[in-house]
From TrEMBL:
Principal place of residence: endoplasmic reticulum
InterPro entries given in the database record: Spc2/SPCS2
One GO cellular component term noted in the UniProt record for this chain: signal peptidase complex
Protein name per UniProt: Signal peptidase complex subunit 2
Highest taxon, organism lineage: Eukaryota
Keywords per UniProt: Endoplasmic reticulum, Membrane, Transmembrane, Transmembrane helix
Known function: Component of the signal peptidase complex (SPC) which catalyzes the cleavage of N-terminal signal sequences from nascent proteins as they are translocated into the lumen of the endoplasmic reticulum. Enhances the enzymatic activity of SPC and facilitates the interactions between different components of the translocation site.
GO BP terms: protein targeting to ER; signal peptide processing
Cellular localisation: Endoplasmic reticulum membrane
Amino acid sequence: MADETRISPYNVSDCKNTTDDALQNYLNGLKFRQSHWYTDVKLALGYTAVIIAAITFALDYKYGFEATKQFTTWAVVVYFLLNGAFTYWIWQVENGLIYVGAWKGRKITISTRTDKFDPTYKLSVTYHPSSLNTIPPVSKEISAPFMQWFTADGFFVAAPFQQWLATNIDMVGDADPKNVIDKAAGVVTAQSVQPDGLKDLVNVIKTGPPPAAAPRKRG
């Protein structure tokens, strides 16, 4: 079914943000256990810097600069260190990371990105093919145009997106085998179904395309 939220299909940033949110909701719906550790660290750095700035302002307002000069000096140093750590965390540690989680003891991390003026969703994933620690993790990159799961008028259609993930990422396919399709059978996209037929999209994916007509025999 189509998401009721409408965006501009020509805005790459909006398409990416909507797709990132849909990816997290989809995996969580499959009983993946999402880790928020990276987000928690980022928030802790940001809030700590804001709290230090607020305390410094309050002390300066109440006691004056001369009385709080030494504290203010150290507070400024710590504030800039925290902001530097915050920036480093976003651009070097997270670096596009949108999902960290696990399913049945198997870990998965997913990062996404887009290039300017290129409406292509690029996904990098690392996951463990087994819960056994002796088996090394698998890393791969996949990509697809946003219009594979966005309609021409900007509505997100979940089924083609979930189908794309389950088919191309084995761990997701193991958790959601009904959305794994045979690539030779063709991929159903948001553009291949008219708006009034979106409710039948899941059935189309499950049953596959209609069989080709038998060739006529020449008399």
